[in-house]
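Researcher: Going back to the complex we discussed earlier. I've cleaned up the inputs and rechecked each line, so this should be the final set. Can you rerun the prediction on the complete assembly and write out the structure?
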Amino acid sequence: MTFLGMPTAPAGVGQLRGDRDFPSAAKDAVQDEQLRRNLGNATATIRAKRARTVQEVPDWEELRQAGAAIKDEVLAHLDTYLQQLEAQVVAAGGTVHWARDANEANAVVTRLVQATGSTEVVKVKSMATQEIGLNEALADAGIAAYETDLAELIVQLDHDKPSHILVPAIHKNRTEIRDVFRREMKGVPADLTDDPAELAEAARNFLRQKFLTARVAVSGINFAVAETGTLCVVESEGNGRMCLTLPETLISVMGIEKVLPTWQDLEVFLQLLPRSSTGERMNPYTSFWTGVTPGDGPQDFHLVLFDNGRTATLADPQGRAALRCIRCSACLNVCPVYERTGGHAYGSVYPGPIGAVLSPQLTGVKENPSLPFASTLCGACLDVCPVAIDIPSMLVHLREQVVQQDPHRLEAAAMTAVAYAMSSQRRWTWALRALRIGRPFARLKRLPGKAGGWTASRDLPTPPQQSFRDWWAER
Amino acid sequence: MRVALFVTCLVDGMFPEVGQATVTLLERLGITVEVPLSQTCCGQMHVNTGYAELAKPLVRSYAKSFQGYDYVVTPSGSCAGAVRHQHPALVPGQQVPPTYELSEFLIDVLGVEDVGASYPHRVTYHPTCHSLRLLRVGDRPLRLLRNVRGIDLVDLPDAHSCCGFGGTFAVKNPDVSAAMLADKVRHVRSTGAEVCSAGDASCLMQIGGGLSRTGTGVRTVHLAEILASTA
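Model: Rerun complete. Updated structure for the full complex:
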């Protein structure tokens, strides 16, 4: 079902689809012992930290419900809040640009950077610009974009891709990071060790030059307050604030679902986000800015609002709650699938449970048919989501769409046959009796075809001599 | 009190001893158990694989099979979860008696924590995702197990982590499923238990398949079988 022909995120730009399906990408990932150790350690640490800091908030459940309700209010009146935001940003001296998709958003930003005459930009860590592939688009126009978030910088220097929403380099340990710095970072001492303080110092020296020379910065945003046109970025390192204050031109890029009605709503989200995300009571740096302030900070400010499949997502009543997401990544850290595969297997900048529902909705399920199945439906993601997105139910809903839009004939035939057998007492009684035929095969260590996936690492149970119902009938 | 057993398709066809143990246990506690044989499956596999339409007749037939009973009890947290959370959305407005997972029925309906069982073995318990997060059974199974005579109940490390079964997930994503299973098997072995128990035959089929393939000698035994035992 396509919803009123709403356009989805275009192919060939940005990072919402992989070049392989999830099961085959995941197969390689789970065989990487180093990756699994790195991920296992990192996710276990953040999980425990989050659990501790969430536990100390007595009204956490009410906060979650408030977060969900505010986001649902925004989604129900998105047009109103976006126009209010635009009017306030313009009134405060900023310029607002609208983009239907990744291509339009990239073209707008490229044109704005070109207008400044600069060939370099510094970047605040941003999922939105990763989603639309802005760095690649700028590079095509001869503009170098420097990531200033430490983890994002590591990934960029290594010509790698982010594998986690909050910790893009979670798949690397510090020895691997030292090797990347030694190889790719200009002016780094040859005897650099993997001591975290030394690594941070190397990055600090490298970035300081960029901050002092850059004339243009590009950021995403965490929240946009419609009533005043104020934008907000939360971060840990302070590098974002350098970008937001030092350059002459600031270009902020946001998906249209990020708007909030009022400052009072921030009270809810600034409690929910840090505890869910880094497991901190409060994040070290929270920056706010409203348009242009004469004599203080960037004097040229642009806000680029893009859709890229969000309106199509909004049109689906059972899927739209995915747009509540505040990109905290709590669901990644508790997901038993993400913990084993890491983020690259998902093929999208949005990995883990939220990625498995958001990516297929933004692109249309036909272009991401394996992601809704990348979950055991264990429910851990729903338990931790700070805006109570029912990811398991949404995955099931999307699976239905995949079956309708991208049918698998053999599977459909098998499912129909089983449902047929199950829909009559007589047929079901005989079907269970027929299982006995399988008794000699239970010792097989390898089954053919799809069933081979089971026997690759598990033994088969031996079917019983008699089904329960036959035992009951004879009793 | 009219009590019906929903034995589940998997137990009916593959693990009848779990259904038999549930009957033995409930009868020992003075319950007259009925088994309407028109029952087949809750439809969860179809729904969770994307075939909700095929599941709807099964959902209707579930309601018909159990019409008129006061309670339905089932030895599966996952199937009870499907009945309670999926059925109302699939076929709205059906009159169905409340469906309880076994440990819920024993503690919440019968008010029993000591079922008079005896099981002199070292046991570790996997709490299963749907019992924990769909039904919120909490520590009910453990409260029942702690009252079993002779049992040596040991904590399972990282118990709340999924075993990797996930229905058709195990077939569609066999490598990830196997990686999750390998960790579960490692944790079970680390306890030194002879028996790994759970309230779901499906999770036990996965864990048991892994324990058997890796030659651990650890057996999987359903919660109902331990609670039925008077050995």
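Model: Worth noting: Chain A touches chain B through 63 residues (CB under 8 Å).
Researcher: Good, that matches what I expected from the previous run.
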